[in-house]
Amino acid sequence: MAAIIEDSMANEKVVRSDAEWRELLSEEEYRVMRLHGTEPPFSGVHNLNFKGGEYKCKGCNSVLFDSSSKFDSHCGWPSFDRQVSEGAIEEKHDTSHGMLRAEILCGTCGSHLGHVFPDGPTETGVRYCVNSTSLKFNSNDK
């Protein structure tokens, strides 16, 4: 990354110009997070990470998911059954690629994270399917 990302303030929206995003993110992070791209399945560093900790947005450092909500969905991307708190994730209708899906965005900076599907195996019934490229992991393991 070209710049240090400070922790965002709770409920405070982060707004940056395109030039600022390009300076802050790597080319691949920009493609996924700002241009709504997708990393190849099974390629992300967080796909099979099951250590204790929290997953934050690479764009603004907001906490999005807790490791206790992560599960292996065998889809090739990190999967979670719930967001860490109400409003951490925003949903938007996505009709790209001839499909109707719910895109998920960071609730603080609007960065593209992935999609959410109604096929989760837990009591929530949802599966947040997230690009590792959009996340950074903070371990709470000693």
General form: globular
Specify the helix fraction band.
under 10%
The helix-and-strand class reads: mainly beta
CATH superfamily: Peptide methionine sulfoxide reductase
Instruction: Please name the CATH topology.
Output: Metal Binding Protein, Guanine Nucleotide Exchange Factor, Chain A
How many discrete structural domains? 1
Q: What's the tally of helices?
A: 2
Strand order of the largest sheet: 3-4-8-7-6-5
Q: Which residues form runs of ≥5 with pLDDT under 50? A: 1-5
Question: In short, what is this structure?
Answer:
The chain has helices spanning 18-24, 27-33, and strands at residues 53-57, 63-66, 70-71, 79-80, 89-94, 101-106, 112-117, 127-130, 135-139.
Written overview of the protein:
With 142 residues, this protein is mainly beta. It has one domain: Metal Binding Protein, Guanine Nucleotide Exchange Factor, Chain A, CATH 2.170.150. Helices cover 10% and strands 28% of the residues. The chain has two helices and nine strands. It has helices at residues 18-24, 27-33, and strands at 53-57, 63-66, 70-71, 79-80, 89-94, 101-106, 112-117, 127-130, 135-139. The strands form two sheets. Strands 3-4-8-7-6-5 form a six-stranded antiparallel beta sheet, with no helix packed on it. Strands 2-1-9 form a three-stranded antiparallel beta sheet, with no helix packed on it. The longest helix is centred in the first third of the chain and has 7 residues, at 18-24. It is globular and about 40 Å long. Mean pLDDT is 91; it is low at 1-5.
